[in-house]
Amino acid sequence: MLFFVVFVLFSMLVLRLGIVQIVYGEDFKREIERTEEVTVNNPVPRGKMYDRNIQTIVDNTPSNAITYTKSQGTSTEEMLEVADRLAKIIEKDTESVRDRDKKDFWILKNPERAKEKITEKEWDLYEEKELDDKQIYDLQLERISEEDLKEFTDHDLEVLAIFREFNSGYALSPQIVKKEVTEKEYAAVSENLEQLPGVDTTTDWDRKYPFGGTLQTVLGKVTDASEGLPREQLDYYLSRDYSRNDRVGKSYIEMQYEDVLRGQKAKVKNVTDKAGNVLDTEVITEGQRGKDLVLTIDMDLQLAVEEIIEEELLKAKQTAGTRLLDRAFVVMMDPHTGEVLTMAGKQITRDDNGKTSVNDFALGNITTSYAVGSAVKGATVLTGLQQGAITPSTTFLDTPVKIKDTQPKRSWRAGLGVLNYKDALKVSSNVYMFRTAINVGEGNYRYDQPLSLRPDTFEIFRNSFAQFGLGVRTGIDLPNEMVGFKGPERGPGKLLDYSIGQYDTYTAMQLAQYVSTIANGGNRIQPRIVKEIREPVMNNNEVGPVIKSMDPVVLNRVDADPSWIEGVQEGFRRVMQEPNGTARGAFAGAAYKPAGKTGTAQAFYDGPERKRFDKTPEVMNLSLVAYAPHKNPEVAISVLVPWAYEGSTGHHANNDIGRRVLDTYFDLKKKRQEQNLTPEEPVQQINDEETTEQQEDAEEQAE
């Protein structure tokens, strides 16, 4: 019987082997030989940024790095073993390791002890499927004590930090384990690659800023490998062929031009067997680093303007003794193309130890807004002319305006006399603007009597101001631009405040667009921070060919007779070039013949120190808009100095900054021209300039 049973069993075994080999043999052979092709994208360096004169602003600097590529079949135990070996060769920072990471690692290292954290009753509930795996795991995590975690040695924590990096990558996608690897570590790892499956040495790239912190807030930042894709935009980037650990622009220019700067990834095809082991690797495309951006910024000018702001800011802070002044802004742009030549801002900050420093705050030109005062009076005059509320020949006697049950409203100085709109701009008459606003609202004004205006008067003014870029987005090619704040009240007194720039708030970029619109004759031009997109080249000392040039964009044309705009231009010229002009003292003798408008606004402090005060301090904001030359202008600027001082006496940092900035622009222009001219040419150029100036002086005397 025993022999018979054994015979039958062997017969069945032979029969089964025959079926496997003969009937299904080819199928099983194909299954064993089956391979899988997996395409992996490897990151490439980002594109560079240059200024308009092709000076490098943002570059890539290479650094040694160690990566780990996880195979599809790699087990946790294998990764831990490799991490342990690698930890003996390199030093890995453990500051990023969280308590949760330590608890997960403790369970991995102590599986039996982890089981003991669960009671028999809980295991019974698990068997009865009243507790699932996640609930059991959560109970284990909860019961791991501080004493348990203290068992980890420094080496254990390094292993954990390395294992954490191993585990954060995709299968077959290289994951950076450590950046800024020392030469010694790099060599040691390279020598031991055979004992470190999946580990490799490579070159990584970091952003480099040759000009330091200059314009840093506008250039933006890039995520690092540990951050990867921003959580709030994860689905967006994954749908565009990004990997979770890819580095992307997370703010401003880096983010706005991500599609340009990211480059074309290298594509590598990995051929794997059924177990996930890589059998062969084939490069499909080499990849190409990101395209380069040429910005509109002139870095020589930017640096000089930043220095001017810092000096004048500290000077005003010391001489005027103002306790709240801490920032100032300057935007300089081409009024015909919208190219932003300078976007500078500085802020005085204080650390926890009371030490002060002056930091870059260029971003404040588009992200912070303030009441700017009389700088907007050019828009008020043109609104009045558009609405037929005044004519070029309209005059008003500058006497205080009083609405019943309110305080009188007057100009900054008494005795300005009878004024037309050009001289009203020149001497900065508030009363002229008040009377213009009342006429726009079709009000019947009588001194110390109630005043009723059209219900839509505010909309008329705000829509008109929007034609110049005031109270609306300028359209600059940067994210998170601020529109400003609109006052909620609609009373007649608030309208009068609005007409002199002391109600709604505006940014320095809006002021620059506004004055450029007046300077160029009525075209609101979109400001631009990027001038060109260029093809990347292998030689780091060269720039590639232009792929795309950013052409000027006219957002709208101001609905005004050209002669009215010319009249405002003349008023702006008088402000800076004629006696009694509010900016004459600062700009007297300027060879470049500027035009512009000053502004002083009574406001309430709303800065970072506001919590220290029981009552919000009243402050004065200073502003300046200007362009030069007044005939055929080539540059426009806005200057904004918020919270400049308290009380009635202070300083003129807006005018001082504006004069020095325009001087610097024309001095730099002259210096560059002299460097590019042959020895015979400068003489002829100087003679031509003198002849032109003499002709202009003669024309002005004739006028």
Automatic annotation (TrEMBL):
Domain of life: Bacteria
PANTHER family in the cross-refs: PEPTIDOGLYCAN D,D-TRANSPEPTIDASE, PEPTIDOGLYCAN D,D-TRANSPEPTIDASE MRDA
Single GO MF descriptor: serine-type D-Ala-D-Ala carboxypeptidase activity
Principal location listed in the UniProt entry: membrane
Domain Penicillin-binding protein transpeptidase: 329-662
Pfam families registered for this protein in UniProt: PBP_dimer, Transpeptidase
Gene3D superfamilies: DD-peptidase/beta-lactamase superfamily, Penicillin-binding protein 2a (Domain 2), Penicillin-binding protein, N-terminal non-catalytic domain, head sub-domain
Pathway annotation: Cell wall biogenesis; peptidoglycan biosynthesis
Compositionally biased tracts (Acidic residues): 687-703
Family: Belongs to the transpeptidase family.
Catalysed reactions, semicolon-separated: Preferential cleavage: (Ac)2-L-Lys-D-Ala-|-D-Ala. Also transpeptidation of peptidyl-alanyl moieties that are N-acyl substituents of D-alanine
Keyword field: Cell membrane, Cell shape, Cell wall biogenesis/degradation, Membrane, Peptidoglycan synthesis, Transmembrane, Transmembrane helix
The Penicillin-binding protein dimerisation domain, residue ranges: 43-281
GO biological process terms, semicolon-separated: cell wall organization; peptidoglycan biosynthetic process; regulation of cell shape
Compartments it resides in: Cell membrane; Membrane
Name of this protein: serine-type D-Ala-D-Ala carboxypeptidase
